Description:
The structure holds three protein chains of three kinds.
Chain A: H1 2-9, E1 34-39, H2 54-60, E2 68-70, E3 76-78, E4 98-102, H3 117-128, E5 143-150, E6 153-158, H4 179-182, H5 194-198, E7 206-212, E8 216-221, E9 235-240, H6 244-252, E10 259-261, H7 267-275, E11 279-294, H8 320-328, H9 332-339, E12 344-345, H10 370-379, E13 383-384, E14 390-392, E15 395-396, E16 398-404, H11 407-422, E17 426-432, H12 434-437, E18 455-460, H13 468-471, H14 497-506, H15 512-528, E19 532-545, E20 548-549, E21 567-568
Parallel strand pairs in A: 1-9, 1-10, 16-17, 16-18
Antiparallel strand pairs in A: 2-3, 4-6, 5-6, 7-8, 8-9, 10-19, 11-18, 11-19, 12-19, 13-14, 14-15, 20-21
Chain B: H1 2-29, H2 44-54, H3 60-84, H4 105-140, H5 145-159, H6 162-176, H7 198-235, H8 238-245, H9 250-261, H10 263-279, H11 282-288, H12 293-302, H13 306-334
Helix pairs in contact in B: 1-13, 4-5, 4-7, 4-10, 5-7, 6-7, 6-11, 7-10, 7-11, 10-13, 11-12, 12-13
Chain C: H1 2-8, H2 14-24, H3 26-48, H4 80-115, H5 117-132, H6 135-170, H7 174-187, H8 191-198, H9 203-214, H10 216-239, H11 251-259, H12 266-294
Amino acid sequence: MKLRTALMGAAAMMTAASPLLADGHEGERGRDGELKIIYWQAPSIMNPYLSGGTKELEAASLVIEPLARYNQDGALVPWLVDEVPTVANGGVSEDLKTITWKLSEGLKWSDGSPVTSEDVKFSWEYCTAEGGGCAQAEKYLDVTSVDTPDARTVVVNFGVAKPFPYGPFVGAQAPIIQKAQFADCMGANAPTCTDANFNPIGTGPFTVTEFKPNDVITLAANENYRDASKPAFATVTFKGGGDAASAGRAVMETGEFDYAWNLQLAPEELDRMESAGKGKNVVSFGTSVERIMINFTDPSPELGDRRGTTDHPHPFLTDKSVRQAMSMAIDRALLVEIGYGNFGRLTCNVLPAPAAFASTANDSCLTQDIDGANALLDEAGWAKGGDGIRTKDGVKLSVLYQTSTNAVRQDFQALIKDWWNQIGIEVELRNIDASVFFGSDPGSDDTFQKFFADVEMYTNNFDGTDPEAYMAGWTCDQRPRPETQWQGNNMPRFCSDEYDALRAELSTTGDIEERARLAKAMNDMLMQEYVMLPLVHRGRNAAHANTLGGVVMNVWDSEIWNAADWYRIGN
Amino acid sequence: MLNYTLRRLILTIPTLLFISFIIFIIVKLSPSDPTGGLPLTIPPEVREQIREALGVNKPLMVQYFLWLKQFFWLEPRIYLEAAFGWDLGTAGETRLISYATRSPVMDLIWQRMPQTLWVVGTAYLVGVLIAVPIGVISAYKQYSIFDQTGTFISMIGFSVPPFFSGVLVIVIFSVLIPTDSFWWLPSIYDTTHEVTDWESFKYQFRQMIMPVMVLALQITAQISRFARASMLDNLNQDYVRTARAKGIRERKVVLVHVLRNSMIPVVTVIALGIPGIFGGAIITEQVFKVNGLGQLLIIAIQGGDVPTVQTLTFIFAILIVLFNLVADVLYGLLDPRIRYE
Amino acid sequence: MSDTSLEQKTTRNQWWDVWDQFRSHKGAMMGAFVFFIIVFAIIFGPMLWPYDATSIDIRSRNQGPSWAHPMGTDQLGRDTMARVMAGGRVSLAVGMTAMVIALILGTLVGVLAGYFRRLDGILMRLTDLFLALPLLPLLLVVIMLFRDKLSANFGPEGGIFILMVSAIGITSWMQTARIVRGDVLALKEREFVLAARSIGTPNRRMITRHVLPNVMSPIMVSATLGIATAIITESALSFLGLGFPPDFPTWGRLLRDGTDFLQQFPERAIWPGLMISLTVLGVNYMGDGLRDALDPRIRGR
């Protein structure tokens, strides 16, 4: 139970969770009529295996469910099982190579047929089938086979020891789908099953009545849901489209909708909407960090095919004092205040949560120190020229700063440009449409992976609570380069044997405290080398109507994970 | 005339094929990626597998010919089968599939058609019906108060983009006016709403008011300007003087002689605008969440959904070519001196 | 007014007549006045105004109108007045240049297609092609192909300017071309054109003397509408990250950014919106006056 306990400990850092079913609101299924949810990006499909997008995951989480999921504190809770298997309760083998799940008694699909271990096994087969392009294949990494000794027992066998065996069938990314419905949809046939992809049969509180891709989903309460008193709502309208501002307005000002997702708006704007009195903002903090990546390689176009590779080290960003000065010049508190308000927190780590993994060794970054930064650069021999820009040996401190197009990011760019100008660094800004920036078209030079700029800014996070895969992103072999078609997560092209050694140790360590120590050490190395500059620990925010009860914001799983418990206040 | 029309119709086939190829090249070359919108937690290898499964990496010409085959050969047969119950052997063939929804593109388009035609089509109709009389009166009473006001409003209407005017009317009619008031209007268009009786028609009417208002303002502004300018040109012509001299009633001079002769630029603008109805109104649809064809196109473009973008744009191209032909034929009817051989 | 102009008619250049007629058009003079005030303000304003459009003063953010900041400040404390003036430079330059490009292209294609029957088919199919092209992917491709080359030759801002202006210009000439062609088709069958042709007027003279002056009104309308369209298209492109760098204010961008704060700080959207509208109105009335002035039948009435 060590892991469980540690994960529960993480709760201390999270937002105070509103207690489940605080009002003791009970009654028969469907008593509260219609629930109206608005997502300003519309879901395009109801099958998370065919689309990894957050909006699709969350829409689908109303219908299909995993065996266990994360609660608002990041702790695992049993969902379609009675107990989460651990080494302590014998569910996970001592060699960490098998995990045994036991389905709850009497589970039914929404069509009335029983849920069996065959369905669970099928979900794995479906995602790993050849030619299907399953977006969640990562969740089933290292699974060699799934055994079904009886109708309720599922044994997952891994090819290697898995210190963290909760990838398969856990969380909104890896739900259980019905074998009978998807049996003919394996692999390359996946797209031919439009009906199944739009209207999956599930175990969740709702079933799809009509799915209009990229527009609106209408759902009705699942007649066969395991709790006879849930869900409280008889129907759900899940509308998509528009923009964040209008979604917030529809919930908090006009009251046309009950719940709005991902409101990336200026904090003062959200406060003003809330003051209209019809709804309120909620937030939960996970692992998302807005950061600036620093390019260790030279992106200048004259270098042709080898630009942005380790053949050509960056002319000045390889100098640690420059990177450190850039970090010191940033006023993170102001960035949080302007860009995120209550929905952002200060951080000096790229791994800010869970609490057990968060380092405190780098907190000096919390205060801005322009004078210190100037002094540091003077000392390192970078002298200010007549135009106020520092040079050394003919190299001018001039950076191209790119990010995706987004109002908050453009404000950040303007602020940071101003601060860097104050320490004698010239800055050119560029913003790129998100579909191009985060895309990986090898023909485009504007992707965040090619990183043909000196610094770039974006947000990243990791699924669940285990940071191993995330921290592995900055090892040498993860550097994007022409040989890997520019794929890889190590955007700064940072490479250190010491870091790679820590990562290797992490992958074989099972003890949770030891894992936390290693992850912290890796985080500290990245921070103290100024490989990337964390700016804001971002929360996930949403708004819900004052008449909607039971909302528990959850950043570790689908945020509408407990829609079965939602109810109308005042009925 | 008939001859000319037939010849033009035949000529549209190579034209359209050429256009479809150019569109395809542009859409493929543009740097957006179908996996670009996925969370960063999905690793690059998985992204590559997704791309492989979608067929993004196949050679360009293979993809183009596959699209041609699906669009011109498979899809028509499927509709024939559905319409007449024939069996043309389409079972088991892969239809034109969207990358994002993994469902047939044509189904998406049919699904979006009603709301787009309702909102954008109505706005267009309203716009044209208001614009032509305004243009005529403005020209006839040039520099009168009516003309000055009309010019002022239409110019403001044209220079204020819908992303502003849309939000402005929402703030006025949905936020500032209380929800229970008669004047309150819904800010979010309900695409699942069905008109079955008087009450539901009233709701449909209410939810269409704001998007139609915003769109019609732009359309009116544009068309009334062209109508006014063209009328002004014709009002000073010799034939008008002759007609008046002959003692023809003023009303007839203006509404029959002048109006008919000044319709050529107006007809061009109107005809050019009709394909635009099917193209949807991207920004207005987004502001009011109408989720019509315009929204489908913009989402597809942002998501690198090549089959959807290609198909939508191509249908759009067919409409443009056809309506330009219609405009040409109308020129001949309005002005018999224009001859086509 | 007609007395003096009639007296001098024999000795005067016809452009003086045009100017006289234009001057007598009250709307046109008002339009010209407003337009030149705006041009004057955006050219000289930034030199006189103490604040810079990009300088951030975080302590005075989100302020309403005051003596120090007559139009208030934005969420980063930048002076809105300075931004409106700086934005006007870009927007007007882009709007006017793109409009001129579109107008020249459109008129050229329209006149050629309407006048020469042999060219009609091919030019109109070309117009169809351009009308059908999806603008956004096209721009993404154009920017991907040419941005780096243009910024290498003309600097980052100059490069983007050329790119934007040509992109907007070459994607918005089609309507003008179709309208002009329709008018030319009808004009070609008019008596005065037939008469001119019968005395052997060469094509070039026919077009410049007889055809072009008679299609001025649709061209003028296209010009007015074209400026507004270009300014707004620029804002849409900048918003998508396809235009000027993000710290580069333009009217369209200011209007779009301001729209988000419409309820709290309405002036942020109203000022740039007003500027666009005033410019378009000014150009429209100037166009009206110019058309009347160029029409010999109206002139001298």
